[in-house]
Amino acid sequence: MAQATTNAVDRTTGPSTGPHSPGADAVPTPSGSGHAFRTDINGLRAVAVLAVVVYHAGIAIPGGFTGVDVFYVISGYLISSLLLREVDRAGSVDLVEFWTRRMRRLVPALALVVTVTLLASVLVLSPLVWGRLAWHGASAMLFVSNLLFPYQGQDYFSDSVTPSPYLHTWSLGIEEQFYVFWPLLVLLAVAVARRTRVPARRMLQALFAGTFVVSLATSVWLTATAPDWAFYVLPTRAWEFAGAALVATLPWGRLAEQSRVRPRLLRALLGTAGFVLLALSFALVRETDPFPGSIALLPVGGALLVLAAGSIPTSGTWVDRVLGLPVLQRIGDVSYSWYLWHWPFVVLTTAAVQNDAIWIKVLATLAALGAAVATYRWVENPVRFSGAMRSWRRTAAITVAIGLTVGAVTVGTRVATGAVLQREPFATAVEAGTEPEPYECAETTETTSGIEVCLLGDLSGDTTVLLLGDSHAMHWIPAFDAAARDAGLRLAVRWRHGCPAAPVDVEQPAERGPCTDFQDESLRTVDELRPDAVVVSQAQIYADRMQHADGTRMTDGEARGAWASANDELFAHLTAVTPTVVAVKDNPQLDVDPLECLTRPLPGIGDCSMSRADAEASNGDLPRISAEIWTKYGVPTWDGVWSETCDAQNCGVGDTEHPVYRDFHHLSVEYVLTRVPSVEQMLQAAVRSTSTSDIG
User: Which PANTHER family does the annotation name (predicted)?
Assistant: First the structure.
């Protein structure tokens, strides 16, 4: 029996640990005696990792990303159970031993994935991103990528940017930070219990309950006020660990005996309810939902109920039989490595072939499963079960050596990046992708009410054209300035980044303030300046950023209605005041970073262009709504880039010597300067008050 118990402990401390429970250890049997392996927990890991992997493969499980929260619950339960046993046995916690086991469990496989991923990225991805990925890899090894990504504005759910192959390591950062702080809090609670003569377990229950309440409240508040940070940081996720810790402190055997429900029926009811909540979480939670916030109670509650059910000492139920299926047990064994490998495989494979079809991502995740099995067998287990690694000094030394190796690779990549980017065609791409400095006004003037207006073009010209809009007006300024000078026109410019000219409220960073002041002043500028023509150039990509006056985000239907109403108001006002109003047909929003695509090391695979149909549909319904408003008010249009970059089938992005774009939706300065003749023709037609439907 002693040998059997040891094997059970070894299996629980090793292979059964999942992607977000790298330090998982043996848990008590439901009766509280022994440290038997819990097949229900290992199966729950498999369910969680399958949800995440299937979600990342693009298969229709919209809430699959909540599998991460299931892992947090598992970790909170296992680690807290370990700490509770140690407190009961020794009255304290051996921090060195605790952290040593976490390093031994987590670092070797992670170091392998980080290093191989970085080397593969150099072969597959553009040198423009090598340096950034080196930082991402280093932050993953230091378990702080969950702080780096929101600082860089990396949206976990964004599909308009090539994601980092390290993006998934944010969850490991939260996990490891939990491992650092949680035993310290436990020790503090034990010390307070001794001084106050309160039973340690009761004090710990108070700690776990308090953490749950405070963290959940923080999560709800921060999700509403700073959603990017709320998604990535420990304070908004700690309640998930704490709830599981509270479950671990409860005497489920005695509670089951005291209930009026037979223990086996109670176990079945709790497990079934947990499965239902998990299914609802995977099926109903959406990327657009405010998360984590209160909606995370679905996956967390489901996982807590499954764990509570498995803690009741009685025979198994249908839930236990499902979770105990051999296939789920095997997946649970390798789930940590599969989680580590699957996302780099998906990102690098789709980037290499320039195709993100579901079948390609499915093949990538299956290949990652093969890598996970190999890593589990030849990296995880040998290190975890090696007698040579049992000493904390040896573990620390090997961990430092691994860190130095990974550090050398990342620093080497940064150095290589600097050298490569000085060569062509990369130097041109770097220059094209650099955000231009704010355009300097040749002169400024004020309207009668004191609104400052930037002037360019021919300052002595008798005819004034006003360019009005957001950053999609700004990227045209070099061409409009040159064209206005050539045509003898005075050019007035009024734009603000992220704010359409149409008076619709758009979500903005707090430091920028609302768009409404800019929009109101723009209409007053038109009234007071009385330009001879107004050219409106505004992005058509605001559908998911429009908000009500109280700051709540609009639904898709509300956004379409608001865009129609705001543009109707804008063009009704402009056409009533100004002889000619011209609308610039907005350029496509690309589905791939053009400069990264043009400079990737595998130019023969895939295509950087997008189909004409996809380009026309890239901004959703807003361009169609805008066009209907233009037609209503007889506003002529200028097609901007379409006639130059698109044919009947495709829309291109230029080449490495002449890139059209500087990012996903802004044009490069070099390209817009090639459009000066067309801009001049459009401006001259505008001041002649043309009545045709198209200009230029």
Answer: ACETYLTRANSFERASE, ACYL_TRANSF_3 DOMAIN-CONTAINING PROTEIN
